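Person: At home tonight, work slowly through the protein below, taking as long as you need, and write a paragraph about the fold.
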Amino acid sequence: MNFDSKITVSPSSDFSLANLPYCIFSTASNSPVAGMALGDYLINLPQLASDGYFSEISPLLSDALSKPVLNEYIALGKAITNKVRERVQAIFSAINTELSDPLAYCVPFASAQLHLPIAIGNYTDFYSSKQHAYNVGVMFRGPENALMPNYLHLPVGYHGRASSIVVSGTPITRPWGQQKTADAEKPIFAPSKQLDFELEMAYVIGKENGLGNPVTTAEASDYVFGFMLFNDWSARDIQSWEYVPLGPFLGKNFGSTVSPFIVTAEALAHCKVAGEVQEPAVLPYLEQTTERGYNIDLEVAITTPEGKETVISNSNTKHLYWSVEQQIAHHSVNGCNLKIADLYASGTISAPEESGYGSMLELSWRGTKPITLADGTTRKFIEDGDTLTMRAHTMNGSYKVGFGEVTTTILPAIANKWEKTK
């Protein structure tokens, strides 16, 4: 299909007309509204609505697109939101004559501020990369018991903290917490020394099922509005001491970073792939007849405080063992109700090759194999002043479909407020 645009879009841009990811943006003179990214511009969707370009779709669009989050718009359903995206593709197409001045409806990236595009009510993090689970299991339990007995039978997950999910560009402060080494008699309380990233892909729920009404794998794709690149920050030393018996808590809830763009499921339909072979066979409620994976390239880079960037990982979402549809089916099989703009994340995505591991825990093998950066310095984990950047994209023919960047700078831990006065 031809996705040439009226607006010049560089081949290197994440935001071709084949993509048109949703976002929320503001300018110095305008409050936050809904937009779509195209090349170096953000399309002002409420402005298009007020000028009648969506009049045949729904009378509710102008109000929903003028809100500071996309929740109300997403709740209108795919029957409407897909038509909006298709309409924007049509009127911004190079062969369409409806818009005499397309830039009149656009704001340059440089003039806009991007915001968290949804109000996240609930957040669930899965553990869907078999390679990642195996790597971590080898470190802590040895190769014979690397995978827990349930791993090949269900998508392991936990409910995380929604309030501390922040948009790309927001700094994260190094967390304090309890830590205990194997040879220590008791734990200490200190800033984390093992601050880590987790390379993940998240997705936004766009349909509700109602309490007590499970969603099948065949139905699940209708519940996915779109995808966001996601960094689930982890304090490994805090996490390893606290997680038994109930799982992650303070080692995770201090912050996660998400891209400001939601790439629709429809924009990624072209890159569906079979997914990893699942052996043994899953239970009937997890069986899936459609393709289970996505072919999306992933990249992680560290930029030192001096400004030197080093790419440290290249992975791909096709390496996920459990699919989005299986995650949703498992999440709801007990009757759990999914809500509009819930955010669910894949868990760390690790490729089979060491160069594609999705966390510093794996890349440095728990700190035993420091990574050498471009400036000659080394890293076992993320240090103060480091900026961590994630990127993701796929190709639709010659047109790039990307997620923008997820970028975070780490700030030093706050001063010790708990030390006893001597």
In short: The chain has a mean pLDDT of 97. The chain has nine helices and 26 strands. Residues 19 and 219 are 24 Å apart (CA to CA). The chain has two domains: 22-115, 124-408.
